[in-house]
Design goal:
This protein is an alpha/beta fold. Helices cover 46% and strands 22% of the residues.
């Protein structure tokens, strides 16, 4: 079977629309259909079938797509290893990262990448959340920095690979002078009756908030919800409620905020890089992944020494 035709099938499995596949490969939709018919002849079984105005993969097509995905990763790894043998990693890598992780990692990562003469990194701040899932963004970008990506069932089904970077604790953030501000830690029962400033429903921090409610056996009074942690910090500092926020990227606003660890339940977020297997096989992408791993280690060391 022709490797390029297998790549067309795999892309159709990912994208679901022949027109998008055609655009990705720079050919016409009719050429995609023709190549898939040839691949069906090579495979000996039907691989696609009509679905509404378009087509969908048969069970055999999905299985061949899965095998083709593995083959694509191996080919990319072979090409990458050879390129690494003859020259240093180079090329253009695209990625998206959610804002608080960008604050934490990007200054150091970009400084590291700047030392590579022929490697460039283009960053975006689309947030892998309810609006954009990691699996959707992995089709648009080489690398996706995601917050708790294991919550994304589509990511699990898409054969994407994940490189863990950090487990960041989520602390209870209080305004200075709050009755609990002097505590070394608080339990869910200590804070459940407070007024809260939360994140949008279904977002990673909100999922931790739901666990807090379950642990306390009561519903919290969440009066405002924001995706931007800086807005949450400002409202808490002004005395409009308390919040759950990440420990390493929450500013104390000239000591107007106090971070208190939450005990008695799991309260953290997992930060990871999510990507397609063939992206990880590219030396340029691996170099960027290594830069993020090194910077995550630096962040942990700095916070441990603080």
């Amino acid at each position: 079977m022709d490797v390029r035709r297998l790549a067309l099938l795999r892309e159709l499995d990912d994208q679901g629309v022949v027109g998008i596949v055609a655009d990705e490969f720079g050919i016409t939709p009719s050429a995609v259909s023709q190549q898939l018919k040839i691949l069906e002849h090579e495979a000996g079984v039907p691989l696609v079938e009509p679905a509404g105005r378009g087509v969908t993969l048969t069970a055999a097509g999905r299985e061949l797509s899965r095998l083709a995905r593995n083959l694509s990763a191996e080919i990319a790894r072979l090409e990458g290893d050879w390129r690494e043998y003859v020259e240093q990693p180079y090329g253009h890598v695209t990625m998206t990262i959610f804002p608080s992780a960008a604050e934490m990692f990007l200054p150091g990562v970009l400084a590291s990448i700047a030392q590579e003469d022929r490697l460039s990194l283009e960053c975006s701040d689309l947030d892998p959340s309810n609006q954009y899932s990691p699996s959707d963004l992995a089709l648009k970008f080489d690398l996706v920095i995601a917050d708790t990506p294991q919550q994304d069932e589509k990511w699990q089904r898409s054969g994407l690979v994940s490189v863990p970077l950090m487990t960041e604790p989520l602390d209870v953030v209080l305004p200075l002078g709050h009755r609990l501000a002097g505590r070394k830690s608080v339990k869910p029962s200590d804070v459940i009756d407070e007024t809260w400033v939360g994140s949008p429903r279904g977002f990673p921090i909100d999922r931790v908030m739901q666990r807090l409610e379950a642990q306390a056996g009561a519903n919290a009074s969440v009066v405002q919800r924001f995706n931007d942690n800086a807005v949450v910090e400002t409202l808490v500092a002004a005395g409009h409620g308390i919040a759950l926020l990440p420990r390493f990227t929450t500013y104390t606003h000239d000591a107007k905020l106090v971070l208190v660890p939450l005990v008695g339940m799991e309260s953290s977020r997992e930060i990871a890089i999510v990507m397609r297997p063939d992206r990880l096989a590219r030396p340029s992408a691996r170099k960027v992944v290594e830069a993020f791993q090194a910077e995550a280690k630096n962040v942990r060391q700095r916070t441990a020494n603080a």
